[in-house]
Design goal:
heterotrimer; A mainly alpha (327); B mainly alpha (274); C alpha/beta (261); B: 274 residues; mainly alpha; two-stranded antiparallel sheet; 11 helices; C: 261 residues; alpha/beta; Rossmann fold; six-stranded mixed β-sheet; four-stranded antiparallel β-sheet; globular
Chain lengths: 327, 274, 261
């Protein structure tokens, strides 16, 4: 993480101001992309916890996303819950599913683990699709209401009917999630996770309970992914098993890789970059996925540390040179 | 019959993983390309089905060589997750290339064998289905003989068991990797060409194929060719039975549910080495 | 030497890998406060014994007791929590982190604040982090790396990387330290410094088990020695006795590190 210099603080503030002002600076379509980018950034950040810091490639995060989305949507539309109450419920459900997956798969090595998560994700996706009675299956859940208004003591209500309000909600959640991850990473838990990624044997002999920490990372990550799903459901107001399904997870993997696995800002950089890039190459609309695939291969071959990693390396080299050129 | 297709692709996955230690996630897409090659051979070049099959093997083998050389070899030294992601990127490239170049409509390969029906043990099958099994089995036997009894086969086995040792014996492991990938890709290509007349050819046909092939290779133990073959047929059988007796809807889920459960109990797969 | 309570006890411990018995019915005891060396030709099972003690490998038969606890079924992190630290034959450290960061990771089990404390940045959390930092620097003092605290561990020369590994193991305030060939790749002068370090650690109250090849070091620093050959214990006792024992000499015959060296 960049040192706490005046530059980095200013940079972060600058980005924040930009993010808050953004809706007024772009057209409707770009705004929509922006909101999605924020929601997907939350998903990517959650995935980074497991992938970047703990070193486990999970292809199931789309399923956690979907479970969070469906739990919230169903509780609101079928049981009349207050939206805000569904958030902890959805996160708990996602975390629970994450724990189940973890227990089943954490003993597995590398590829086995990745494919297992994929399989698990596919099973969940299929269940969401086929269990018509509960989830409305392929028809999807429509007319999901926006978040319930919050009464502000004496000042009326905070209403979320407008896209703008929901954008700021998502942004606020993203910031909270980032704070959470920041604190986590800069604690003994974060150190333990990174140790696990780099050298499990060493970590274990230093006293790190591998299974416990992997499960912890997994459940926290799943809960966050579920949270992203909840935000998705109230923004788009319509859910179906495909849109809220595995592909979100796959994209998240790519965004994290391109942005920089295991770096703090990587997931966001990767997501924003990949979501907005096609817009500047509008003429290549059809070729979007093709280019994504090519970009992925190029990135992983030549720049495995992602965009953020590349920037850090350049920075380090830039820092080193002045000293070297002094006689 | 479906088992044969699974088995062919699973064999490719197992071989490639065994030698190169990379799970080639794009193999399903290669099967899809093989299907398209066969389709165009017949529709555009008016070749016989046999030639179409041969073409699918050859073209995909060449593709495989290229993929090994330019996609996988550069990341061979990096952590395995990189190879996985490369393969995934490749899958995107192949699939979307096909989508753009050939359109998303389903194409039917008109195999001459699809019209005749024969009666085996009381069941009516099209010749095509029988052909799939025959060719698949023939290929498997050929593979087995190749690996057991030829010098090249021995070199492949050596590279799989002990890459560094193989180098010390004067085996060009990189060339072996290329050849293995070519063989694996060729197998996938012909699988696509074989299933074409029955299941039709379309850009995303490789998706479920590859995931199930992975499930199979993992269940059989990655790198174990026998496990891949057996697994392919077992899965085909389970799916057919499951569709009949349990539920058609969840047919696809069986493979995955089984995988997760088996691995939870036996992390190295049924035939794998720990 | 202290004939204090027994720290580690191996009781007819056997480890078999399929048909191969890497450790055969080894019984030995390590006493509190001593430096106990395990020597033997290559492949005699020394590292396997360490792996058994630290919980990396399960015992096939026999029993291992650490501080009186039977360690059957314990995973490495649980053994670590009993107060055991170890290093590995091939130095294992986190190469891209600084020396200090490496040491702080080693303090994992000593950290008491949990998730919530970290999240809310409570006074308790911050104080603890500061305390661990201070303590880690003290440990770096002991191993002589205080000045290199902020250097990236992977860029240090071999000898210093070894010390980082030792610092990481010490960070857990262990009562027992297992060092697997700490002189691997070290030059003459560095070996002498390591000997001093071992004595410093022993004087701090940590019991040391040492796997070693360099006989001079073993002779000068050990309180007691055990000799393994082909997985079996062939001799155990004070250095003078063991190193002149005929069986020991025979076991080493033909190898470069003969006891007389």
């Amino acid at each position: 993480m960049a040192p706490r210099t005046a530059t980095s603080v200013l940079a972060i503030l600058g980005v924040l101001v930009l993010a808050i002002a953004a809706p007024f600076l772009v057209n409707d379509y770009l705004f929509h992309l922006l909101v999605m980018a924020v929601i997907w950034s939350i998903l990517a950040t959650s995935l980074n916890l497991v992938m970047g810091y703990t070193g486990l490639l999970s292809l199931a995060h789309g399923a956690f996303f979907g479970m969070g989305a469906y739990t919230s949507a169903l509780l609101v539309t079928k049981c009349g819950w207050n939206f805000w109450a569904t958030i902890p419920a959805a996160m708990a459900v996602a975390a629970l599913v994450g724990v189940v997956l973890g227990v089943l798969t954490l003993r597995l090595a590398g590829h086995y683990f990745a494919v297992s998560t994929l399989s698990f994700g596919i099973v969940i996706s299929l269940i969401l699709e086929k269990w018509d009675d509960l989830t409305e299956g392929a028809r999807g859940i429509s007319s999901i209401p926006p978040p319930t208004p919050i009464p502000l003591f004496g000042l009326g209500e905070l209403r979320f009917e407008s896209d703008l309000a929901r954008y700021y909600l998502a942004l606020a959640v993203l910031i909270l999630c980032l704070l959470f991850v920041w604190r986590l990473v800069h604690s003994a838990i974060g150190r333990a996770l990174e140790a696990i990624r780099q050298n499990e044997l060493l970590a274990s002999c230093l006293g790190v309970n591998l299974v416990y920490y992997k499960l912890l990372a997994f459940s926290l990550s799943a809960a966050m992914a579920g949270l992203a799903g909840v935000l998705y459901s109230v923004y788009i107001n319509y859910l179906n098993p495909v849109d809220a399904g595995l592909w979100n997870g796959f994209y998240a993997v790519m965004y994290v890789v391109i942005g920089g696995m295991g770096t703090f800002w990587g997931p966001i950089v990767g997501t924003v970059f990949m979501v907005t890039l096609p817009e500047f190459l509008r003429v290549f609309q059809d070729y979007r996925l093709l280019l994504l695939g090519i970009l992925l291969i190029i990135m992983i071959t030549f720049l495995p540390a992602g965009i953020v990693g590349g920037i850090k390396a350049l920075w380090r080299r830039g820092m080193a040179r002045p000293a070297a050129s002094r006689p | 019959m479906v088992g044969s297709i699974y088995a062919l692709i699973a064999m490719g996955v197992a071989m490639i993983y065994g030698v190169m230690n990379v799970p080639d996630f794009a193999l399903g897409a290669k099967a899809m390309l093989g299907g398209y090659v066969a389709f165009f051979m017949m529709a555009s070049f008016h070749q016989a089905y046999g030639a179409a099959l041969a073409a699918s093997i050859i073209v995909l083998a060449i593709v495989g060589l290229g993929v090994e050389r330019w996609i996988f070899r550069p990341v061979a030294k990096a952590p395995p997750i990189n190879g996985f992601i490369s393969a995934f990127g490749l899958l995107l490239v192949f699939e979307n290339f096909a989508l753009i170049a050939f359109g998303s409509s389903y194409r039917r390969i008109l195999s001459p064998y699809d019209r005749e029906m024969i009666n085996i043990l009381g069941a009516n099958l099209t010749m095509q289905r029988l052909l799939v099994v025959i060719i698949a089995v023939a290929l498997m036997i050929a593979m087995h003989l190749f690996i057991r009894y030829t010098r090249l086969g021995a070199a492949i086995r050596a590279s799989a068991q002990n890459p560094r040792g193989a180098v010390l014996c004067g085996i060009h492991t990189e060339r072996i990797a290329g050849i293995t990938m070519a063989i694996g890709s060729g197998l996938a290509g012909v699988a696509g060409a074989l299933i074409g007349p029955i299941g039709m050819v379309y850009p995303s046909m490789g998706d479920t194929l590859i995931v199930k092939a992975f499930v199979i290779t993992i269940l059989g133990g990655m790198g174990s060719i026998l496990g891949a073959i057996l697994g392919g047929y077992i899965l085909g059988l389970i799916e057919a039975l499951g569709a009949m007796y349990i539920s058609v809807d969840y047919k696809d889920a069986f493979a995955f549910a089984i995988l997760v459960l088996v691995l939870a109990v036996r992390p190295q797969g049924l035939f794998g080495k720990a | 030497m202290n004939q204090g309570p027994v720290l580690v006890e191996l009781d007819m411990v056997t480890k078999a890998f399929g048909g191969l018995r890497a450790v055969r019915e080894v019984s030995l005891q390590v006493n509190h406060g001593e430096i106990f060396s395990v020597i033997g030709p290559n492949g005699s099972g020394k590292s396997t014994v360490f792996n058994l003690i630290s919980g990396v490998l399960p015992v096939t038969s026999g029993q291992i007791r650490i501080f009186g606890h039977d360690t059957k079924g314990l995973r490495p992190h649980q053994v670590a929590s009993l107060g055991v630290g170890r290093t590995f034959q091939t130095t294992q450290i986190f190469a891209d982190k600084t020396v200090l960061e490496n040491t702080i990771v080693g303090r994992h089990l000593q950290v008491k604040t949990g998730l919530l404390g970290a999240q809310f940045g409570t006074r308790h959390f911050r104080d603890e982090e500061a305390r661990h930092r201070v303590r880690s620097l003290e440990i770096l003092d002991v191993v002589g790396l205080r000045g290199d605290a902020d250097r990236t561990a992977g860029q240090l020369p071999n000898a210093l990387q070894q010390r980082v590994a030792i610092a990481m193991a010490l960070a857990n305030e262990p009562k027992l330290l297992l060092l697997d060939e700490p002189t691997g790749g070290l030059m003459e002068q560095e070996v002498v410094e390591l000997m001093r370090l071992l004595r410093r650690i022993r004087d701090l109250g940590v019991t040391i088990m040492l796997i070693e090849h360099k006989m001079r070091l073993v002779r000068q620093v050990s309180d007691r020695i055990a000799v393994l050959n082909n997985g079996g214990l062939i001799c155990e006792g004070k250095p003078e006795t063991v190193l002149n024992d005929a069986r020991v000499v025979e076991a080493y015959l033909g190898t470069v590190d003969a006891p007389a060296a």
